[in-house]
Amino acid sequence: MTLRYFIGRLGFFVAIVWATATLNFVIPRIAPGDPIEDTVARLTAAGQSTEGADELIAAYRAQLGLDDPLVVQYFSYLKAIFTLDLGYSAALFPVRVSTLITDALPWSIGLLTVSTLLAFVIGSLFGALLVWPKTPRLARLALSPFMILSAVPYYLLAILLSFIVAFKLNLLAPTGGTSPGITPAWSIEAIVDIVKHATLPALSIILSAVGFWMLGMRGMMVTTVGSDHMLLAEAKGLRPRTLFWRHGVRTAILPQITALTLALGEVVSGAVLVEVIFGYPGIGGLFYQAIRSNDFPLIQGISIVLAISIAFAILVLDLIYPLIDPRISYRRR
Predict the structure, then answer these.
(1) Helices (DSSP H) in the chain: which residue ranges?
(2) Contact 60, 36 (CB under 8 A)
(3) Which residues, including other chains, have CB under 8 Å from residue 167's CB and lie 6 or more apart?
(4) From CA 213, how far away is CA 218, in angstroms rounded?
(5) What span, in angstroms and rounded, lies between the C-alpha atoms of 202 and 116?
(6) Domains plus CATH for the chain?
(7) Residue 333 predicted with pLDDT over 60
(8) How far apart are CA 252 and CA 212, in angstroms?
């Protein structure tokens, strides 16, 4: 890998973040509605006094910098991004956006990272076994239905699992991240409780994603099994297990790793509908609440974190590709 290439990819990373930040700034400001007036209206609807509402709106707008010219707001916004100061939430003022995001991120990262990795491993293995000639016929018949689940949206599976497992069988908690009275901490009781609450959301994501990874791996294994290097390895008398893992799976899994890297870059976005259905305290549920309350400082903060994570995942993927596959080189010949 050359220094010139590294600088180029780093520049591309910065360009993606800047373009996303600019769109992130413009779109909420051309959308209908005023977040400050909406917040005051909700307070009024809740029975609070309307006296001084105009002064409260003016104070909120001044504090959030919404009365400044758009150019001033734009450069202040870019500065805030590069200094990681995302400002205040419009709906939950004076809570800072960074506080809300950092509180919600661990929940989504834990849920989505584990779910994505499990779905990737299981789906890739099942997809490879479907094509491998020595796989028993009964095993192929048992694995095939998992591909059908790829056509089922994960939020529908979430509703179904919630109804059957939580409400009918009463095996797992239907909502929330922890039970009442349990504070997230590094203790056995808290960890077990968190896992119980995360099992249903994770299961809905895994069951839906396994079919996707199976289809991708199955397609790659079809071309790999009949390739010249596989025939040569088989002619050398290598064991079936070695043929399967070292020459089959290892060769076919490269495109899967590309998709996995991009999927891991999106874990900070959370599984919005799943988190809403299960009342999970992740970034997806927070994003949903921000959209409902027209809280564009929070929407901007979550969107920019998501954009940075995906752009960073692409950057890492570009840099590690030559290490994964020696055939790939960025040097000029």
Answers:
(1) 3-30, 35-45, 53-64, 70-82, 97-131, 137-143, 145-148, 154-161, 188-225, 228-235, 240-242, 250-252, 254-265, 272-277, 283-292, 296-324
(2) yes
(3) 174
(4) 8
(5) 9
(6) 1-91+294-333 (no CATH), 105-292 (1.10.3720.10)
(7) no
(8) 15
- Tens of pLDDT, residue by residue over 64-122, are 666 777 788 788 878 877 777 777 777 776 788 888 888 888 888 888 888 888 888 88
DSSP letters, 182-232, are PPP-SSHHHHHHHHHHHHHHHHHHHHHHHHHHHHHHHHHHHHHHTSHHHHH
How many angstroms separate the CA atoms of 265 and 259, rounded?
A: 10
pLDDT for 221 beyond 60: yes
Residues 225 and 249: their CA atoms lie apart, in Å, by 10
| Helix pair 254-265, 97-131: axis angle to 10 deg | 160
Q: What is the pLDDT of residue 63?
A: 61
Amino acid (1-letter code) at residue 19: A
pLDDT value at position 266? 64
- The CA-CA-CA angle for residues 131, 132, 136, to 5°, reads 100
Identify the three-state secondary structure at position 236.
coil
Q: Is 329 helix (H, G, I), strand (E, B) or coil?
A: coil
98 burial level (CB within 10 Å; 0-12, 13-18, 19+):
middle
Closest CA to 305 of 84, 57, 49: 84
